[in-house]
């Protein structure tokens, strides 16, 4: 029997039990793997997830847990444990994982691609001009590595660049992503919605990677969730660089965004000068024209 245990930190495979194993053996196994005592474990299975309230001597099969199921683990506080013991009797509950109801309206709004381990989803970041980077990390890295970040490389004097990137209305890009890859010791893969291109920062340097989706003017995150309505605390956002399933699913998410026209490229904007009425295409033409007028 193979079960997937998901908590807020990671996913753990349990393959030491069978359908005739006792529920007590399952909770003890989980305790050994996570350090969370059985009394403090809240286990949810099925879709949508429901709390599995079984007796210790019930078999795993009788609880409705089946081979291949994902068990969502939440650690209960002492107050929650005491409240459960006082108000809720322990009874055997069957939670079939095969009866999957229609997702709620909230899950319908999520751009997702199903995989064997859950759903790869788009997690939209707040559009507050700081979605990509944290300026302090970037500035510190640039100042510590002047040989790698020369004025020529940055496209402007280093101090001027650091001043610019610290402004709340400044947007980061490839330079900042490469710095984050170095800072967090993980490859960053940026999937371009319009072209489907994947830019890799820190490629070949790390065993783990994260994915971001670039829509032309904004970066959003990619996550793996056990079910579409699960809390984001169960999201997995760090993956092995050899995981082609997540790579393909991320491209699938980008493809769905393109179909929904959820991308914008300032280089394709059509503009007209308010003074001379000259037609312009893209932000760069507009910038150059503004310098001449």
UniProtKB/TrEMBL annotation:
It is an enzyme of class 3 (hydrolase). Pfam families: OTU1_UBXL, zf-C2H2_OTU1_C. Its EC number is 3.4.19.12. The keyword Ribosomal protein does not apply. Residues 1-73 form the Ubiquitin-like domain. It is found in: Cytoplasm. Signal peptide: none annotated. One of its GO terms (biological process) is protein deubiquitination. CDD domains: OTU_OTU1, Ubl_OTU1. It catalyses: Thiol-dependent hydrolysis of ester, thioester, amide, peptide and isopeptide bonds formed by the C-terminal Gly of ubiquitin (a 76-residue protein attached to proteins as an intracellular targeting signal). Hydrolase that can remove conjugated ubiquitin from proteins and may therefore play an important regulatory role at the level of protein turnover by preventing degradation. InterPro entries: OTU1_Ubl (IPR048857), Papain-like_cys_pep_sf (IPR038765), Ubiquitin-like_dom (IPR000626), Ubiquitin-like_domsf (IPR029071), Znf-C2H2_OTU1-like_C (IPR057766). The keyword rRNA processing does not apply. SUPFAM superfamilies: Cysteine proteinases, Ubiquitin-like. One of its GO terms (molecular function) is cysteine-type deubiquitinase activity. This is Ubiquitin thioesterase OTU. One of its GO terms (cellular component) is nucleus. Keywords: Cytoplasm, Hydrolase, Metal-binding, Protease, Thiol protease, Ubl conjugation pathway, Zinc, Zinc-finger.
């Amino acid at each position: 029997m193979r079960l997937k245990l998901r908590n807020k930190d990671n996913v753990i495979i349990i393959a030491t039990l069978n359908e005739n194993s006792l529920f007590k053996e399952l909770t003890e196994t989980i305790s050994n793997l996570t350090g969370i005592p059985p009394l403090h474990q809240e286990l949810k299975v099925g879709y949508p997830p429901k709390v599995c309230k079984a007796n210790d001597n019930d078999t795993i099969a009788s609880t409705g847990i089946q081979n291949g199921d994902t068990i969502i683990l939440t650690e209960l506080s002492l107050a929650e444990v005491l409240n459960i013991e006082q108000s809720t009797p322990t009874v055997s509950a069957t939670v079939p994982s095969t009866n999957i109801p229609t997702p709620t309206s909230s899950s319908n709004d999520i751009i997702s691609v199903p995989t064997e381990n859950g759903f790869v989803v788009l997690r939209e970041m707040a559009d507050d001009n700081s979605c990509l980077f944290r300026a302090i990390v970037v500035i510190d890295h640039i100042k510590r590595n002047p040989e790698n970040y020369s004025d020529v490389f940055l496209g402007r004097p280093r101090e001027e660049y650091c001043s610019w990137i610290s402004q709340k209305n400044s947007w980061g890009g490839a330079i900042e992503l490469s710095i984050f890859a170095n800072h967090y010791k993980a490859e960053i893969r940026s999937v371009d919605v319009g072209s489907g291109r994947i830019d890799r920062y820190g490629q070949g340097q790390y065993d783990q990677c994260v994915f971001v989706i670039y829509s032309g003017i904004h970066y959003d995150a990619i996550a793996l969730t056990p079910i579409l309505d699960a809390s984001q605390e169960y999201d997995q956002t760090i993956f092995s660089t050899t995981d082609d399933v997540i790579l393909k699913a991320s491209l699938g998410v980008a493809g769905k965004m393109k179909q929904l026209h959820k991308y914008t490229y300032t280089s394709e904007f059509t503009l007209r000068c308010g003074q001379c009425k000259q037609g312009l295409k893209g932000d760069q033409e507009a910038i150059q024209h503004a310098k001449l007028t």
